[in-house]
Amino acid sequence: MVIKVGSGEIDDLSTLTVLDKESLLRELRARYKKGIIYTYIGDVLIAINPFKQLNIYEKQQHDLYKYVQYRNQLVPHLFWIADQAYRKLCLSKTSQCIAVSGESGAGKTESTKLIVSHIIHCSGDAGDRELQNRIIETSPLLEAFGNAQTCMNQNSSRFGKYLQLDFTDTGRIIGAKVYEYLLEKSRVVQHGPGERTFHFFYYLFAGLEKETLEYFYLDDPETYRILKDPCGGKVFPDRSDVEYCRQMFNTQKEIMQRLGFTKEDINMVFTILSAILHLTNIRFSHDDETDGVYIEDEYPLEV
Q1: At which positions is ATP bound (predicted)?
Q2: Per residue in 200-223, pLDDT tens?
């Protein structure tokens, strides 16, 4: 059977007669128009972000892509990558690595969470459910502190992440470690029009009660330089944004508690965030007499 290039029916692009940019893009475009977001190039999986929810990550798919012997048995899927890594781990007893790369908004963060969920599905049982949930929940907690709104993506990762999963010799998952690197610290100082600083600063103002905000000497969010919109707009453009940030605040606080943060730990996190807000409000002016600088208003420094 001859399959025409550009038909959207080629699951593995490495089988194309001509492997040039135009042929690859033509086939990917045709598949995307058919609602097919995954395509193989050999052992590499290409994913195109559909920017909508899909029902292809349910228990049915988890079960279907568990211990797959031959790749061409099933249509291309992210779970196949996860299944292959787990099977090779169990068979070879050596560490495996999955590299997830792409531009901002490509879907790297969501893909990583789905990969982890499938590996956990393959390796665990009902008794591991609490551990599994804690591992999965590390991602949204890190996102709250390391993700921000950009012009291209409402939830863009502004840091790199290396997630290490640990297993027994029998392939049962027993824990995880997360290493963060390349954090875009400059975003705390300044962000461009249409962008925001890290999510949790907004969650803080939406989630804390008025009395608690006063305890941290926090005023209206517009008071703080790093939260201000460069174009002069409101920090929270509408009520729905406030409600969403309040909901996310409560969610992140619950996750911290489930991961073992004490009340004192959580309070310290809020204290540090508040201190950053006050610290970045300190303004310096030139002192003509000493040719140095002085602080215009020492209140933020005192706080």
Answers
A1: 102-109
A2: 999 999 999 999 999 999 999 999
